[in-house]
Amino acid sequence: MTQKNWSDRINPAVRSVPPSGIRRFFDLVAETRGVISLGVGEPDFVTPWHIREACIYSLEKGYTMYTSNWGLLELREAVAADLERTYNVKYNPKNEILITVGVSEALDLAMRALLVPGDEVLIPEPSYVSYAPCTTLAGGVPVFMPTSMENNFRISADQVRSAITPRTKVLLLCYPNNPTGAVMEREELAKIAEVAVEHDLIVISDEIYDRLTYVGEHTCLASLPGMQERTVLLNGFSKAYAMTGWRVGYAAGNPDFIGAMTKIHQYSMLCTPITGQMAALEALKNGQPGMRRMVGHYNRRRHLVVQAFRDMGVPCFEPGGAFYAFPQVSVTGLGSEEFAEELLKQEQVALVPGNAFGRSGEGFARVSYAASLDDLSEAFRRMARFVRRCGVR
Ligand code: PLP
User: Fold this and answer.
1) pTM score, two decimals?
2) Thinking of the domain 8-46+289-386, which architecture would CATH place it in?
3) What ipTM, to 2 d.p.?
């Protein structure tokens, strides 16, 4: 083979997107022995047995084919029923719900279906690592709205209003939030919704952590006045039902948006794998008690983790949802990356540096408490030692 440099033939948008800060850090983790990882945003539970069994049973019955592009109608009906029961929002399962390969695909489809080059997408920061790259890859321009611990990592309606330009098309929200664990009150969201209506914005609402809400009640954005028609609601099974590897999510929204997303999906994915869809159907039918048990475990760990950081002298925002804590590690005198790298090297504990989630994450680290109590207590023993060596307390 000739040694030609092919990189200039790659789409410049793809070249412009940096590799995920999380992935980069995990290459380092892979090279280190005896690591306790509190880095990955993934339940430490195996998918409940009845869900796995339903999938096995479906295979025994021969369900191995393509499904409709939209996904199994029975699953879409179950999703619609779940959304109506939980949030009193009604979607037509025939043309307002699309089953996707995780929320990841739904996010990508929403961006590609909605954006034309130059369209601006407002994103609260720190933000989930996919938001900016998916925006850029779809030709859009991410516009970040920084949040801080002082404001409980929440955005305000005023912040949204002042970030709007004539090119703003989409507001992307994620509460409960990854990486901060922040949640938003209904009244605050309602004010933001008013701004969205006033400026005719489309809202993509990533509610993948909705069931992992520990403080107050989750507000489904589409349930707010004037919002359902302009909201692309994203959710899935990865977090609530411990089903990350099954790759099932969905988008719900008006038939124009969902129809456009389905058009892309039918040519790229064709459909979401039937095995995952069968499992997701069982999760919605019978998975609520198991899901609530897992959420109870996360909630207990949440208290322990926040307290453990405070006992060490590291300020830690109290997360109201998801399974992340976002301690302010800059009290050690180290920056985010230095803290994460030194902690890994010296004590073999892996966290994600906060700046992987954007500039306003600098000075923080993301700690996933979706880990066993044994791992958490050993990790905290090591971290306390490290933090003491840095001169805190
Ligand atoms: N959205 C957020 C905020 C996430 O944290 C994640 C995964 O960590 C995803 C989407 C991706 O979810 P899925 O597994 O459904 O693709």
Assistant:
1) 0.96
2) Alpha-Beta Complex (3.90)
3) 0.99
